[in-house]
Amino acid sequence: MKAFPLFVLIFIPAFLFSQKISQDITKDKNSYVFAQIYTGFYYSFKETDIPRTAFQFNQGIIGYYHKLSEKVSGKIMYDVTRTTHFYEITDTAGNKLDYKYFEGSKYTAFLKMAEIKWSINDNFDFRVGQLLSTQYLTFQDKFWGFRYIDVTFQEKYRFGMPADYGVQLDFKIKGKFLNQFSIVNGEGPFRYQDVNAKFLYSNNMQFNPIKDMTLKLYVDYAPSPDTGRDKDDKSVISVFAGYKTTKYRIGFEYNYVSNYNYNIGTDYSGMSVYGAFAVSQEIVLLGRYDYLFKSTINETNNIDYYIFGVQYEPVKKFSTSINFRYYSVDALPFIYANFGLKF
Q: What is the pLDDT of residues 91-135, one digit of tens each?
């Protein structure tokens, strides 16, 4: 437990605020810059975990929003994360080759969103550019509300891209129903369109049967860009139900991917249950459980993942958390200190 004093040192200052500070930065509604900084520290209880302890930088976002009129607006956003990684190089016979390389910074800025939004009327919106995914990022991420601690299930296990280039048409009945139909490249924010020009088609429906409750159904279909024997079209279905008030929230989602990465016979599925309870304006208790099931032609395996913790918000838009996590692969228990700032 050599890291324990350091762990205490970096978190204690958050609790030195004896009085709630309410300080809101008023933004111009027509034009403003926004940013997010998510960072933290972890310690593993297993000596075999390498590295056993470290400071982390989870995400850095900077963006700009501008509203030209009541009907037309634009938003651009850059994210900082790791975008490239080399696993291995082999020859034509499949033998591994030794190699040396410098991959550059593990924290690379990339264009995450560049959207033009045209509000045609009260019921229809048209969006074009690089769009955030309706699969999980535009709703579940906000419902969970603790991205600075960890991302939601589908982003964590890569069930779909966080953003992509394309178009989207929204149909909405305010406070009751939303349908979003999208056509995108299907390659995500890091790559060009595939040489065969295959698109990904998706539809997202959200329904509010009663106040504070949301039901959500997302489906997509993507033809395989590769015509190899072991490749086939990929599809996703995601179901969500949640109830959220100012005091508490609870959500459940089930997700299924057929032919993960376009590989025939490789199917991923899983569920995530998460919730939070506000003890006071400053203190929130939170918890989450993920179950992931992987099935391939040759084998199956599953993963359990738990998060339990407390959030303390000494200043609005500045969040801190102490949380315990358990990852069933290699039976890894962790304790984390996380910090998130939005402005």
A: 555 555 665 545 556 677 889 999 999 999 999 999 999 999 999
- CA dist., res. 276 & res. 248, Å (int): 5
Domain residue ranges of the chain, discontinuous segments joined by +? 4-11+33-342
CA-to-CA distance for 202 and 28, rounded, in angstroms?
34
Residues 288-311: tens digit of each pLDDT:
999 999 999 999 999 999 999 999
Contact between residue 127 and residue 117 where contact means Cβ atoms under 8 Å apart:
yes
For 313-334, the pLDDT digits (tens) are: 999 999 999 999 999 988 889 9
Within 10 angstroms of residue 330's Cβ, the number of other Cβ atoms is 8
Residue 120 Cα distances to 171, 203, 242, angstroms:
10, 19, 29
Q: Cα–Cα distances in Å, from 131 out to 7, 84, 221, 224?
A: 38, 21, 17, 21
Q: Which CATH architecture has domain 4-11+33-342?
A: Beta Barrel (2.40)
**pTM given for the model:** 0.86
- What per-residue confidence (pLDDT) applies to 23? 46
pLDDT digits (tens, 9 = 90+) for 187-225: 888 877 877 789 999 999 999 999 999 999 999 999 998
**What's the angle, vertex CA 259, arms to CA 253 and CA 260, rounded to 5?**
65
CA distances from 28 to 35, 65, 67 (A): 15, 10, 10
